[in-house]
Amino acid sequence: MAVTTGTVSADDKAGSDPVFELSSLEVFYGEFRAVREVSMEIAEREITAFIGPSGCGKTTVLRCLNRMNDLIETARVQGSVKYHGVDLYDAAVSATEVRRRIGMVFQKPNPFPKSIYDNLAFGPRLNGVKKKSDLDDIVESSLKSAALWDEVKDRLKSSALGLSGGQQQRLCIARCVAVKPDVILMDEPCSALDPIATARIEDLMRELTSEYTIVIVTHNMQQAARVSDRTAFFTTEVNPESDRRTGVLVEYNPTSKIFSTPDDERTEQYVTGRFG
Amino acid sequence: MALSTPSSSSVRAAETVRSGLTARQSDPFGRAFQVSLWVAVLATVAILGVLIFDVVTHGWGVLAGETGDFLTGRLGSQPENSGLGQAIRGTFYIGVFVVVLTFPLGIAAAIYLEEYAQHGRLNSLISVAIRNLAGVPSVVYGILGLTIFVKALGSVTGPDANGRTVVSAGLTLSILVLPIVIITAAEALRAVPNGIREGGFGVGATRWEVVRSHVLPYAAPGILTGTVIALARALGEAAPLILVGATTGFLTGGESFLPDSLRERFTALPIVISTWSGRPGEDWAASTSAAIVVLLVIVFAANLAAIVLRNRFERGRR
Ligand SMILES: Nc1ncnc2c1ncn2[C@@H]1O[C@H](COP(=O)(O)OP(=O)(O)O)[C@@H](O)[C@H]1O
Ligand SMILES: [Mg+2]
């Protein structure tokens, strides 16, 4: 179970309980079943990557992990998503509390149209941090952990919209880190960025794994190979009951295995570029 | 020949490229369209300019004080002794009703419809109904005001004036412009990028925290524009006021700005303008023009305030 690959040593992780347990997860948008039968466990302080062709449900599954799907009126979830053993979709669970612990970085950088400082202070203020000096500390430390402090420390009061795309995305990561979550979900965080900004964010992810569990969706297989410990490959299959294609989880294995000796033929075709 | 003069052939090639690149320089339809846009803008500005010039020149004598206290005086039987005090007071209170009732109610309704309600059948039915309400002729609202605020609730809105008070007028016009406020505020909310909401929810904000901290500030300039349009509309309506019993002739009382005078009989600027414009003689015409200038100044002032506020909000959004 606790086989780990990549640059992180496996020893200290052996035997730790999974952060997420998905069992028979299915997500519907209205009548359309977008993904079916996803069962997997996501380990603590690892980077788990979701890869697969466009439309296979990577984003959909990711958004189940912090109940972001609640915001889509037509979305409906079946099966269970357990977080440290608690069913996230239990009626007694508050989506707000879930999202305070399981933060999210979106595909398109979405800083608030406010100052850099206010972007970072928003979350901590919600959690009741009021003292200016405490907020200052949080702002500084989260910008440092997102490797952005040196670039913006002299203009914390200027608008976040004046930052470049790569800086904005790192700001969004910092905003996420500022509320001290347990897990960070990232949906194609580098898709709008140039290679240098991408490399910085990849370095950042590796650094963040010392404290955080990270789940990342990426369409970039090299990125998955570079940063992740485990990789889940999704694809689409024709539905028996309709002609729309439903996403399925094909294979979930240590990243090195996925990219060298995958169990499933479709995974091999995909990672070697012979599949759409 | 061609071989011995390679430069001439390359000159010719350059000519071909040039003629290709410079073709279609003339764009007659585009030109014509641009000109017609200019004509449209000029016509609009010219009409407005003529209108303002006309009322200002006609009303100038009256405004300059040749006929006494025009801005504070009471309605009278002669142009010389007629003033706008009561009308300005009525229009002021109508504005207060709209600002105090319609703005919060309309913005709250828009927030509910856009941010909270399920976007199902019922919601779209309600949206269509509100859109239709915005298109209902104002006399119909006048009849509504007459039935409800003047007749049914007369004992509340004005026991000594049979309900024909500025309270009835303010309530009627507040209802009249409510759909406009809801529609424009809802549009402003819909224009807020969803990423901003997701960013807020993503750090564990509740819906209210997202709306208050991010959605409303972003939508504020648009909401403000809509509310000022609604206010201007309310200040300019005459027809519903006639139905709820605005006084056109002689009026005792109705000039105090103190709240306990709210349940007296009233008049308002659009009523005075339409009444005076029907009276014979140059002097009445001059007074009418002067009253129009006063109404325009009030509406422009509201717009100006909106522009200043709007700039403040937009600075916050950058
Ligand atoms: N809000 C939505 N409403 C309806 N269908 C959606 C919605 N979001 C995604 N889908 C559909 O669900 C499927 C999976 O989408 P998504 O999870 O975004 O895929 P991926 O992220 O792997 O590209 C697609 O067929 C997509 O069209
Ligand atoms: Mg996606």
Please explain how this structure is put together.
In chain A, 33% of the residues lie in helices and 25% in strands. Chain A has helices at 58-64, 95-101, 116-126, 132-145, 149-152, 165-178, 195-208, 221-227, 255-260, 265-271; strands at 20-29, 32-42, 47-51, 75-83, 86-87, 102-105, 183-187, 213-217, 230-238, 245-254. The longest helix of chain A has 14 residues, at 132-145. Residues 1-14 of chain A have low confidence and may be disordered. With 318 residues, chain B is mainly α. Chain B has twelve helices and no strands. Chain B has helices at 6-22, 28-63, 85-116, 121-134, 138-152, 154-157, 166-190, 194-202, 207-236, 239-243, 269-277, 282-317. The longest helix of chain B is centred in the N-terminal third of the chain and has 36 residues, at 28-63. Chain B is flat and about 100 Å long. Classes of the chains: A alpha/beta (276), B mainly alpha (318). At the A-B interface, helix 2, strand 6, helix 3 and helix 6 of A face helix 8 and helix 9 of B. The structure holds adenosine-5'-diphosphate (ADP) and magnesium ion. The site of adenosine-5'-diphosphate has 13 residues of chain A, from helix 1.
Q: Can you summarize the main beta sheet of chain B? A: none
Which range best describes the helical content of chain B: under 10%, 10-25%, 25-40%, 40-55%, 55-70% or over 70%? over 70%
Fraction of residues in β-strands of chain B: under 5%
Number of DSSP helical runs of chain B:
12
* Largest interface (C-beta under 8 Å): A-B, 31 and 23 residues
Ligand identities: adenosine-5'-diphosphate, magnesium ion
Overall 3D geometry of chain A?
globular
Tally the helices of chain A: 10
Average residue pLDDT of chain B: 88
Number of strands of chain A: 10
Question: What separation lies between the terminal Cα atoms of chain B?
Answer: 66 Å
Binned, the helix content of chain A reads 25-40%
- CATH overall fold name of chain A: Rossmann fold
Q: What is the name of the CATH topology of chain B?
A: MetI-like fold
Mean pLDDT of chain A: 88
Gyration radius from CA atoms of chain B, angstroms: 28 Å
Taking pLDDT < 50 over at least 5 consecutive residues as the criterion, the unreliable ranges of chain B are none
What is the correct CATH architecture of chain A? 3-Layer(aba) Sandwich
Backbone shape of chain B: flat
